[in-house]
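Q: What structure does this chain adopt?
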Amino acid sequence: MPEQQQWTIAATEQPPEWFIQAVKQYTPASNGLYAAQLLWQRGIKHRQQLTAFINYKVYQPASPFEFGQEMHLAIARLQQAYNTKEKIAIWGDFDADGITATSVLWDGLGQFFAQNTQLVYYIPNRLKESHGLNNQGIDNLAKEGCKLIVTCDTGSTNVEEIIYAKQLGIDVIVTDHHTLPAERPPVAAIINPRYFPKEHQLFNLSGVAVAYKLVEALYQTLPNVAKYPLEDLLDLVAVGLIADLVQLSGDCRYLAQMGIQRLQEDFKQPAAARRRPGVGRLLELCQKSGDRPTDISFGLGPRINAVSRIQGDASFCVELLTSRDVKRCNELAEVTELANARRKSLQKDVQAQVAQKLTQLDLSTTSVIVLEDAQWPAGVLGLVAGQIAQETGRPTILLSTEGAGGAGGAGGAGEQGSRGAGEQGGNSSSVPLCPSAPLLARGSARSVNSVDLYQLVKEQAHLLHRFGGHPFAAGLSLLVENIPLFTAAINQQLRQSLGSTTLTPTVQADLTVTVADLGKELFLELKLLEPCGMGNPVPKLLIQNCWFENSWHRNQQDWQGKKVQYIKAEFDIRDDSSRSAFPGLWWGHYKDELPIGRCDCIAELDYNTFKKRYEIRLIAVRSSANSALTTQHSPFILDLRNQEHSATQHGLNLSYPLTGLIIQDCPTNWDDLRMWLRRCLAISRSTSGLENKQQLAIAWSKPNHQPPNQIWLTLVGIAKYLSRTNQLVTRGQLLEKIGISDQTLLVGIKALKYLGFTVQRQDRSLQITWNPNDSAENHADEAVARFLAAVREEQFQQQYFAEVPLSTIVAIASYDSK
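A:
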């Protein structure tokens, strides 16, 4: 169980009237007060500052030659290569920022150098190589005749590799935004915004934005060469900027605003007319339209990152982002979507294992969480570490010894939780590897509460093989035998620096609103702050003394229904401010986890493009009457399975009243049973005097299954009847008639579509029509086979739960209630 969150409300200062009126000019449908409060508390306090923040058209971006002598050196070296027709290699990185940066250079430099002959690119394999340059890759480029390497999103501290390239006759131009080297490396040029003071408008540029500035300088130097406008690159810049979670201020905000505009304009075009059909197809697959920063942070970014996490080699993503071949882009988008589905599956598995290990830690004496396992895939450790850090309020380091050996590299610093922020690894420092003990652990680290994780890890460099990253994210590798010493040392170091400060998971609300405030007007008002990111987070809304109604939940399925991954609760929220309820959802939670009665919650206001409605996304919730964490006890479980009499009869014949719940439907997985356990706990907490009589009766009978083929024929017969009579049906009615689970029904509906059935949703009902199509029927066999396999698997699981020992169920209940 995560620790109790500490809730805070941002300090509010009433902005002056002139400022409120200035903001109101941009919010004609509302009074602009909420947006004015947010902008004022975030440091936007001057009219010119406000105008430039909201309207990118009046912002004055910095010249690429603000980088001074280094940019002039880079352009001079590129001009030399242009004049002498030298071969150039782009050396990128495998995260979303690195992939988009490579794509920007591929398209941008490709206007001056012939692609695939004069210009090539190289993306390291995430699972086999580290971030940054490596000698083997340099050797391969030397054999291809490359005379110049242009890095992007990497390379600043690869001094030894740069020297090696120079020995082979290869010059290096570094474009990067990661940690600066102690001394300038022997490069043709190094373009890194961290040489600027923190207040400079270019300081926060990500890797893709630095790459864009290099191309911009070349466009200005050779103005009559390029065939396509420089602005065509801005959509890629926006994707990399937002996915990498850099602070969106100065030129970062300007480029992101411009890029989102280009992204949306291109998506509105027919697929065949799009400049970037691959990006458009990815947006379609994640049901986004490209007009919101969250379309990138929740949609595009995680999908691009998933490829290297699962496959290692993400090189094809550059083709996906830059090719104009619609058919090829569609194929690559499908591969990317499958990788993302696999990533989510792995992430969920590792998160469950990490949660179990956390129960063995005393968090009261733990400042930095360090956990390791031989089975964890390194590609998803950054994502899980970010989730654990948020839940516990403590920096988290997860290490894997999977496939460990002497060639291990720094595990990449990756996305922030389910939001997909870009990799932060980029540079790494190397420590000589002890030849007598080559077994390495690779991992990722994530931080919270303003703890500079990079410096924290760097202080233990003597125990590490490699490390690199940012203050909030780092990748590292170290000898397995050094893990205990590293864990003790880094915990002691942070404890000393914190003093008496206690690390606590914290969520901060920005504004206090009512249910009556929610809706289109407030959404458009808060949209003035977009694009949001670090330094300008999505506004968090505190809603007090509210309650939930009409709650329900369902399993979210991966692409093509391959595997159930996440639960999502939906609900209506109400308070005394309005007679109308407002819809919302809570990702990763069951409806039974919503408090009973009055409560307070913190949420984000969003627009659901799929359902075409405004809704809240729940972030945190607690009971109004008692905001402290309620102690939970395991429910008393009464086993009434496979009895001759009904559960009701058993309940009436008991010598004591049954104060809990009765489950009569046999579950098909542990999540179904956990839902009932949580519901039982919720009821007992809300019922005074019954804390010691929490009862859950499991009263299902051994299932009497129909053959899967007969179930399929029944489903087809019902579909034909509904089509003929034009009647509507609910999912619940279908489930009751056919006797299968919700997720198996979804697989069956997909199979029906191959027989020519069209299934459309009307509110919470389904309308089924039949238009037989011979070409579709040719592909029906495989779809029907998937349905039959799903039914057989479900029946196997029900058979298991009919006979699983009660002791196993009690053990699961006890673990979940901790």
